[in-house]
């Protein structure tokens, strides 16, 4: 129970359905005041109090489990290391993989619980052969299956998402919370990274990695400006480049590449961002793995992004080779690509390299 409205309603629905429910709030910060405050996150003392009050109203036991050290090692340190290496990680995906459905699940099973129940909007389908599938939520507007695409068959077997199969708007979830007497009914949602207190990712990284001055260059290698740390940029970024003078054609420039080896950031025109194919590593399958050989899927590349048609194939059992039917932009190493077969989540992998469309005159 994060202290938000979704997990509170999920717990209430699970209890109402007859499950023996225990509320657990995860203490993920060694210094809770360093995480987001003002009811906007999920890791503060305030959030813990909100979760406890919700559990009291539902009438279930409540505990706080300290996973701060594991969270720092598996999520925060990984986040910093990925940016330092010039990649763009997704900490929410990592948290689901390593904390909520690994550390938390392992402890829960050891204590005799059957499953971890969360307020995510997704659906687990039990097949006739006893295997499980992860599907999108009934309401696509709230679907969160992308950040759950790292869950494997064992984790799915011990996962419950009571909000995923109901066509209810967020306003209706809040109304339900109010009817149940849950104080969090009007609590704002959290959208930012929970462990970056002020939402300033670049400032957070600078404090931990220090300044590392380098050049901002164009595709020919000509120096256009300087930066204080390549880790402060992401592929596709347009604002905050501080180049100082426009491109010869007067069009905006975007971050095309981040090279930690020579500490340079390369910028160029928007069409230079067009990605036609990629290779992803560390694939994780949600339930049964895909059949051998290339197959057509749809893919999602970011938590709130749309779907795009792809052809994907597992190569040498370790790498996922993906080709896009139409070029896509803003694809960065370190991001997760999640494959879908209709509403079913096939699995996910971490983008390692991308291939760009060859441009005339480039």
Automatic annotation (TrEMBL):
BP term (GO), one: tRNA wobble position uridine thiolation
Residues holding ATP: 26, 119
Domain tRNA-specific 2-thiouridylase MnmA-like central: 203-268
GO molecular function: ATP binding; tRNA binding; tRNA-uridine 2-sulfurtransferase activity
Domain tRNA-specific 2-thiouridylase MnmA-like C-terminal residue range list: 276-351
Record-annotated site: Interaction with tRNA: 120, 335
Residues passing through the membrane, by range: none
GO CC terms in record: cytoplasm
EC number: 2.8.1.13
Keywords assigned by UniProt, alphabetized: ATP-binding, Cytoplasm, Disulfide bond, Nucleotide-binding, RNA-binding, Transferase, tRNA processing, tRNA-binding
EC class (word): transferase
Main location group: cytoplasm
KW Metal-binding (keyword) present: no
Residues at the catalytic site: 95, 194
Interaction with tRNA: annotated segments: 142-144
Family stated for the protein in its record: Belongs to the MnmA/TRMU family.
UniProt function note: Catalyzes the 2-thiolation of uridine at the wobble position (U34) of tRNA, leading to the formation of s(2)U34.
Record's protein name: tRNA-specific 2-thiouridylase MnmA
Organism listed in the record: Streptomyces angustmyceticus
């Amino acid at each position: 129970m994060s202290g938000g409205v979704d997990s509170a309603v999920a717990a209430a629905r699970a209890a109402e359905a007859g499950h023996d429910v225990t509320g657990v709030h995860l203490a993920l910060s060694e210094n809770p005041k360093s995480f987001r405050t003002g009811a906007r996150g999920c890791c503060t003392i305030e959030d813990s109090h909100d979760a406890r009050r919700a559990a009291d109203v539902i009438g279930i036991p409540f505990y706080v489990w300290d996973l701060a050290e594991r969270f720092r090692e598996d999520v925060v340190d990984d986040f910093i290391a990925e940016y330092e290496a010039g990649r763009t990680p997704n900490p929410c995906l990592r948290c689901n993989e390593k904390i909520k459905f690994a550390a938390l699940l392992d402890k829960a099973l050891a204590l005799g619980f059957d499953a971890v129940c969360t307020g995510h909007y997704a659906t687990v389908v039990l097949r006739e052969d006893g295997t499980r599938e992860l599907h999108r939520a009934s309401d696509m507007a709230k679907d969160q299956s992308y950040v759950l695409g790292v869950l494997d068959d064992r984790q799915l077997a011990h996962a419950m998402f009571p909000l995923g199969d109901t066509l209810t708007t967020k306003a209706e979830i809040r109304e339900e919370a109010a009817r149940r007497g849950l104080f969090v009914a009007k609590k704002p949602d959290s959208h930012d990274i929970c462990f970056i207190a002020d939402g300033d990712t670049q400032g957070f990284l600078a404090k931990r990695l220090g300044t590392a001055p380098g050049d901002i260059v164009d595709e020919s290698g000509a120096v256009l400006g300087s930066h204080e740390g390549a880790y402060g940029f992401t592929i596709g970024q347009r604002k905050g480049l501080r180049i100082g003078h426009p491109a010869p054609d007067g069009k905006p420039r975007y971050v095309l590449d981040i090279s930690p080896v020579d500490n340079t950031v390369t910028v160029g025109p928007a069409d230079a961002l067009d990605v036609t194919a990629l290779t992803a590593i560390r694939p994780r399958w949600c339930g049964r793995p895909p059949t051998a050989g290339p197959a057509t899927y749809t893919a999602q590349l970011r938590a709130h992004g749309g779907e795009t048609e792809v052809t994907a194939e597992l190569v040498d059992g370790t790498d996922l080779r993906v080709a896009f039917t139409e070029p896509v932009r803003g694809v960065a190493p370190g991001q997760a690509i999640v494959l879908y077969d209709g509403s079913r989540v096939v699995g996910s992998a971490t983008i390692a390299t991308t291939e760009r469309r060859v441009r005339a005159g480039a």
